Amino acid sequence: MVQQAIELRNVSKKRRRGKTIGPLDLNLPQGYITALVGQNGSGKSTLLHMLLQLTFPDEGEIRWLGQPYPDGLPLSLRQRIAYVPETSEMEEKFWSAGEAAEFRRHWYPDWDQGYFEELLAKFDVPQGAKLGKMSKGERRKFEIAAALAPRPQLLLLDEPSSGLDPFAWKAMVETLRKYMDATGATVVISTHIIEEVRRLADYIVLMHQGSLLGMAEKDSLFGSWSELWVQVENEEELRELAGELPGALHFDMQTPGVASLITPQAQQNEKRIQDLGVKVIKSRMLELDEILSLWTQGHRPILIDQERGD
């Protein structure tokens, strides 16, 4: 049975301008990377803040490793959690990387100074510079190194690649994956970078306008939707075909005699089309960003939303 790192039960939180996040019912499995995906304002950062108890839900309950902590997370648990916020804190801007690390290490008994220095070197962080004088990317790399140095068992990352150049982004992805493989930690990452989701995530949580649309194992999404091109004479013939394919979307005449459509269960529907005497010219599986876009429009993938812990 999959152990749950975090469980949310009917969690809701009112935000500014009367907007509400939730209700959220969600299990985040222990030892995996879960990506929170959604447009700006969908509630991803607020969810991370609730997991850190930087803010509290108005309704519902959150459990960490099976236990609720309504009166605050104990220090022993906080010392196993690390967080990289979307915007760096200003309090440390006059400190160098080494000075900031010296302060932080007092809070974390498992702080690994050698690992921290190894990451600074790998990320090419200027150790003598004040944090406030660093570029956004340099400060980001410091924050990631400082988050990993305590060897956390729960790592929360809010848009971690913000400000990183392609080389630094690749190094970050490789470092996070290597850390996961070595420690079995749980990672929750809020991101809008699809390639980041593709490279890192085991599970995807999709949020939209404060609502939880669902959770899926990432690999199960691939192939859930496909685009087919078929040979039809005219719009009338295309409409007749549409009537035979419930669940298919976006029927469109591309050129005279050729139409396209989006369909779930492509293999099954491709056979259905051929049985109707219509020629399938070609097909392609939709990319992950296209699948997630359809999902936000209300077209939920078939057979992918599983209960965690089965």
Summarize, please.
This protein is an alpha/beta fold and 310 residues long.
For this structure, what is the CATH homologous superfamily of the largest domain? Answer: P-loop containing nucleotide triphosphate hydrolases
Could you tell me the number of beta strands? 14
User: Helical stretch count?
Assistant: 11
Structural class: alpha/beta
Strand line-up of the largest beta sheet: 6-7-8-3-9-10
Tell me the radius of gyration: 23 Å
- Unreliable stretches (pLDDT < 50, length at least 5) are 304-310
Describe the structure.
The N and C termini lie close together (6 Å). The chain has two domains: 4-220, P-loop containing nucleotide triphosphate hydrolases (Rossmann fold), CATH 3.40.50.300; 225-285, Alpha-L RNA-binding motif (Alpha-Beta Plaits, 2-Layer Sandwich), CATH 3.30.70.1560. It is an alpha/beta fold and 310 residues long. Helix 4 packs antiparallel against helix 5 (136-148). It is elongated and about 75 Å long. The longest helix has 18 residues, at 166-183. The chain contains eleven helices and 14 strands.
Chart the SSEs and their pairings.
Elements: E1 4-14, E2 20-29, E3 33-37, H1 44-52, E4 59-64, E5 67-68, H2 75-78, E6 81-84, H3 97-104, H4 113-123, H5 136-148, E7 154-158, H6 166-183, E8 186-191, H7 194-200, E9 203-208, E10 211-217, H8 218-221, E11 225-231, H9 235-243, E12 249-255, E13 258-264, H10 266-275, E14 279-285, H11 288-296
Parallel strand pairs: 3-8, 3-9, 6-7, 7-8
Antiparallel strand pairs: 1-2, 1-4, 4-5, 9-10, 11-13, 11-14, 12-13
